């Protein structure tokens, strides 16, 4: 029909169309909020369940709680959690993030578990918000399914655990979405990208190359893809100022340490340049490949571990992910689709992850590869959404009427609700009452610290050295408990990294007494205890054994049967053995002129 003869739309018709479009947008927004709330709610339930759990910290958490308490002292932390490699992780943001709930709860350690769950809940909500800004209801739907599977794979106990390998998992996802937003010039997200990138890089050194690669991709994209409108091509001044202020505030302690402290960043660089141990090599690609699979640990699949070390799998999922993302990137670039920079970001993350996986040192403990879980989730979410928005939806628009498309969208969202709900329903009880970190040590640590507090004068200056504790858990719990009880403690534990703070590192200070905390692992012979008993002047001042003499004999018998023939135990006997092993912890504390039973 010629344009002159085409019927003109009246103002009333335009208003009606605008009203319909506005109602649809509101309905889509409400549905997006509902979907995000589905994966936020379990975290809120968990936070309420652990806040008064009476949790007793041990292991690295005892160190973290102690260092959080140091923020208001002259020994405020300037670097992150210690590493067994002779350096600390880049920054102390973990301690400062937990400081407010620590102070508000008057030092209740359980409050830090609840605070961690709340931080993760807020992060999930922020991920949903950014997904809405970038891809509307479609991207929110895919992201919610991915988050639900990831939460199922991580488990509630991981999501309340403020250990530095676990704390950055969800913030890393938010960082990648915020970085993508900056690439498409959504400048409001620039401070968020700077903040989240700083947080995850400070929490664990593994994220330094990952965040660095993302920054390079975004920078190159902005430099090579300019918009015609100059007012949107460059970041506004207020966004740059705010992002700069956020970055400076978060990295200020690290800069102070670099200038006037122990130069931790230089130690990290020196270690990775010169002092690395034996790496796993190409087997790391198999570990990364297995984690990227649709049934990998990120979605709830079991981690394959032998003698404490993670086993590699097939590299096919890695190869397939790289190939699929490459095809999608080309298709998106041809259409100038908004998914293009996201796909490039994810491909860069996979490239860095592949290199990093080959350089993981043996033995490969599960916590060393846990960063692969959120990466796998992002790979799947970006791939599925890009496939739908770049390839599938354009074809549907050409072939299906709008009513049919809306019906298809409704069916997809309904399926997403079901898929998001199933992983969380299957672990519903654990969200209400999750396993608490290292709680198997609580009884022993509480007993020993109580005995020592009754034996030692208040305010005494102590040298405390743990021995025989291969996982560095119970001994650290005793040290943390003594510090919390008001004792001045010095220790050589983690001295290379000032693990407990510079003022507590043993440097031949004058002390009132020296304590050796001997930890006997499960089903081990207490030879170190015998060594301390034989030392002249040594006196046993605290002792805890989680098993009776009869139970210990039963443990030895069942353990021998299992060792001699795998699967020989009946299910009830196997469960009984596992229960005894969980309680099999002996701690003996000796007071002596020096450290006894040196390991």
Number of continuous helical runs? 22
Please state roughly what percent of the residues sit in beta strands, choosing from under 5%, 5-15%, 15-25%, 25-35%, 35-45% or over 45%.
5-15%
Overall pLDDT, averaged? 89
How much helicity do the residues have? 55-70%
Structural class: alpha/beta
| Regions with little confidence, pLDDT below 50 for 5+ residues | none
Describe the structure.
The structure is a single chain. A five-stranded mixed sheet has the order 4-3-5-7-6, with helices on both faces. The protein folds into three domains: 1-276 and 414-433, no CATH class; 278-399; 439-546 and 584-592, D-Maltodextrin-Binding Protein, domain 2 (3-Layer(aba) Sandwich), CATH 3.40.190. Helix 4 (109-154) crosses helix 6, helix 6 (169-183) runs antiparallel to helix 7 and helix 18 (442-455) crosses helix 19 (474-484). The protein has helices at residues 11-50, 59-69, 93-104, 109-154, 156-159, 169-183, 190-203, 207-224, 230-233, 237-260, 264-274, 283-292, 316-334, 339-358, 372-399, 402-426, 428-432, 442-455, 474-484, 527-534, 549-564, 571-583; strands at 305-306, 309-310, 461-467, 488-490, 513-520, 539-545, 586-592. The radius of gyration is 27 Å and the shape is globular. The model has no long low-confidence stretch (mean pLDDT 89). The protein is built from 22 helices and seven strands. Strand 1 (305-306) and strand 2 (309-310) form a beta hairpin. The chain starts with 10 loop residues before the first helix and ends in a 7-residue tail after the last strand. It is of the alpha/beta class.
């Amino acid at each position: 029909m010629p344009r002159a003869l085409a019927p003109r739309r009246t103002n009333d018709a335009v208003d009606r169309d605008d009203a319909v479009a506005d109602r649809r947008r509101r309905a889509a927004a409400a549905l997006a909020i509902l979907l995000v709330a589905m994966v936020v709610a379990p975290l809120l339930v968990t936070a309420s369940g652990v806040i008064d759990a009476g949790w007793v910290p041990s292991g690295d958490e005892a160190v973290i709680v102690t260092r959080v308490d140091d923020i208001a002292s002259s020994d405020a932390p300037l670097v992150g959690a210690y590493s067994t490699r002779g350096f600390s992780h880049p920054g102390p943001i973990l301690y400062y993030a937990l400081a407010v709930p620590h102070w508000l709860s008057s030092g209740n350690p359980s409050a830090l578990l609840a605070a961690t769950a709340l931080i993760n809940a807020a992060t999930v909500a922020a991920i949903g918000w950014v997904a809405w800004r970038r891809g509307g209801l479609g991207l929110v739907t895919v992201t919610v399914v991915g988050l639900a599977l990831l939460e199922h794979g991580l488990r509630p106990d991981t999501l309340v655990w403020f250990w530095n390998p676990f704390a950055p998992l969800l913030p890393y996802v938010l960082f990648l979405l915020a970085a993508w937003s900056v690439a498409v010039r959504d400048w409001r997200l620039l401070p968020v990208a700077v903040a989240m990138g700083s947080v995850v890089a400070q929490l664990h050194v593994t994220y330094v190359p990952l965040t660095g690669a993302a920054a390079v991709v975004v920078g190159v994209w902005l430099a090579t893809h300019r918009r015609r409108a100059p007012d949107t091509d460059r970041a506004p001044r207020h966004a740059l100022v705010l992002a700069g202020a956020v970055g400076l505030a978060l990295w200020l302690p690290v800069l102070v340490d670099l200038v006037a402290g122990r130069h931790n960043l230089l130690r990290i660089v020196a270690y990775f340049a010169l002092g690395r141990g034996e790496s796993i090599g190409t087997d790391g690609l198999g570990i990364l490949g297995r984690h990227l699979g649709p049934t990998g640990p990120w979605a709830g699949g079991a981690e394959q571990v032998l003698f404490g070390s993670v086993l590699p799998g097939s590299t096919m999922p890695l190869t397939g992910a790289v190939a699929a993302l490459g095809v999608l990137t080309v298709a998106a670039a041809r259409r100038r689709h908004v998914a293009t920079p996201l796909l490039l970001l994810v491909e860069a993350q996979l490239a860095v992850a592949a290199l990093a996986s080959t350089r993981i040192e043996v033995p490969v403990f599960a916590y060393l590869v846990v960063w692969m879980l959120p990466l796998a989730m992002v790979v799947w979410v970006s791939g599925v959404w890009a496939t739908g928005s770049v390839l599938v939806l354009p074809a549907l628009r050409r072939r299906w009427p709008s009513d049919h498309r809306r019906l298809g969208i409704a069916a997809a969202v309904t399926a997403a609700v079901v898929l998001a709900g199933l992983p969380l329903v299957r672990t519903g009880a654990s969200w209400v009452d999750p396993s608490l970190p290292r709680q198997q040590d609580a009884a022993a640590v509480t007993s020993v610290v109580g005995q020592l507090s009754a034996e030692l004068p208040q305010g005494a200056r102590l040298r405390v050295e743990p021995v025989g504790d291969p996982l560095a858990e119970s001994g650290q719990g005793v040290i943390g408990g003594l510090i919390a009880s008001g004792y001045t403690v010095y220790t050589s534990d983690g001295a290379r990294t000032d693990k407990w703070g510079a003022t507590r590192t043993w440097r031949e200070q004058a002390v009132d007494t020296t304590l050796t905390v001997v930890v006997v692992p499960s089903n081990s012979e207490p030879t170190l205890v015998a060594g301390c008993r034989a030392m002249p002047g040594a006196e046993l001042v605290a002792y805890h054994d989680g098993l009776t003499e009869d139970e210990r004999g039963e443990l030895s018998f069942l353990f021998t049967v299992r060792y001699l023939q795998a699967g020989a135990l009946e299910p009830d006997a196997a469960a009984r053995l596992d229960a005894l092993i969980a309680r099999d912890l002996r701690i003996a504390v000796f007071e002596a002129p020096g450290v006894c039973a040196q390991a």
